[in-house]
Amino acid sequence: MVREGGVVTATAASAATGVRATTTATAAATAVTVARAAVAAWALLAFAPAQAGPAGADGEYFLHQVEPGDTLFWVAQRYTGRADVWRELKALNRVADPYRLPIGTQVRIPLARIPVTVASARVVSVVGQADANGAALRPGMRVDEAAWLQTGTDGLVTFELPDGTRVAIPANTRLQVKRLRVFAGTGLGDTVMQVDRGGIESRVAPGGTGVGRFEIRTPMMVTGVRGTRYAVDAGQPDDAGRRASRSAVLEGTVAVRARRAKRMVTAGHGVAVGSAGDAAVYTLLAAPTLSAVPAEPIYASQAEVGWQPVKGAIGYLVRVTRDPERTEAVFAATVTPAAAALTGLPDGPAYLEVRAIDRNRIPGNAAIAPLTVRLNPPAPYTVEPAPRSTVHGTVAELQWAAVDGAAEYRFEIASDADFGTLAAHGNTREAGTQQTLAPGNWWWRVRSIDAKGQAGPWSAPVAFRLLPPAPGVSVVEDNGGALRVRWGAAQQPEAFAPLAYRVQLADEPGFARPLQDQRIESDTAALPRPPAGVYYVRVARIERDGSESPFSAPQRIEVHEHLRDGTGAPIGTASGSVRRGG
């Protein structure tokens, strides 16, 4: 009889419930083959659940779970390519009637009897440092049998096997692809990986075609898949050289073989294998309750997330993936508090996954939340005003670099770095804008908007100070010995009043060689009277931090000779000796 008591996994739903074996010996093989082909085609078109048939491997045997219509002849032909192997399978499995196999039982087939072809895996994603046989990995590269893969402290790699199985390798992992083949005629995978250091997470045969052999070996245990998603940690030796390996099963069933124990581990459970070879099964910790996860789009490559602490947790495994199946990790970290700072987030949809780690260092059930990251169109590069700069005038002129793909820009100016109170804002198609502002301390930022109206991230806030411009200057008196000049000191808050003024007099408008250059702490100055001629005068503010404003526009003046009396005193008035011009 057929060995019973096999594991029926979540993928064990039959897609052939209406198929029955023909009892006439001469027609059996033909009828079942035709029926099988028809059902397989229907299953593909209807996107039915995985076949129950291929059910993974157990040691040196491949397991086929019997479905309605299966005969031992068909099983032998499908997996070995030879119908006459049925006799060997009959003896091995103690089958009473090769035409009537009890549904749900398992037929063992020696792996050595199944022909295979050499295969390769495709690298799907790479983050950080990762290599194969010493060569840096890149998406699209192929990984062959016997390759050694290694990730650095920031390395994350995902590769895909021919049957669609995805294998995710975390940081600080070293493993060898011991076997990478495909069962000839079925497309089922035949994969064995040896993890020497670090861990691995797999999502096996997601396409619903069933499982061939998929084994992960560590120094302490061997795990075999029955159609599942699970993680393995090879563990690290302690100071005494003791080592423990662990596995957590998220979907389906895993067979674990250790030196002194063998366990079937179902979804929601984990197993720890100690240095003595004993295996203990534990219930996975509950998924954390995510309490601080951004619901709105994240306009940055980093974000803060948080969750409710889980009783019994000694830490948390946090991952972010770019695909909803959660196989292409872009961020991974183990943290102790119930919070994490995510970094390196890519543009587009992403998926947060958090698991509580128990005292056996087995990660528990996953809490999952979608994230939306918008990094495009990118933030413009801000030009003016520069950070912590001072602008003199009544108008702030904002300038930024144009961004490819930006249809327009949105700018904001506020009196606080959080932009809670806006003084000016708007949209423009230009790479700049001018805004009238009162003297004060301001922050500004800008973002790009694409042709569809989707905005990208804001630029970093830029702090600047706007102060009044230098006042206009005029000559108010010429007494023959000095020119008295004055400028208007505008009413302004004490915090923005200048410390002093700088006054210059020159005989040419470029002020290359000023004739007079004085620091004055009031709004008037007496300059020594120069000889008759054309001169220019200007003034600048000296701020409290020692910086200076731009000079005012030069004021042109004409100085004339005075008529003097017998004592040498000038005769006439100021208005007759000085002429002011533009």
From TrEMBL:
Residues 62-109 form the LysM domain. InterPro entries: FecR, Ig-like_fold, LysM, LysM_dom_sf, UCP029644. Residues 563-582 are annotated as: Disordered. SMART domains: LysM. PROSITE patterns: LYSM (PS51782). PANTHER family: LIPL45-RELATED LIPOPROTEIN-RELATED. This is LysM peptidoglycan-binding domain-containing protein. It comes from Cupriavidus cauae.
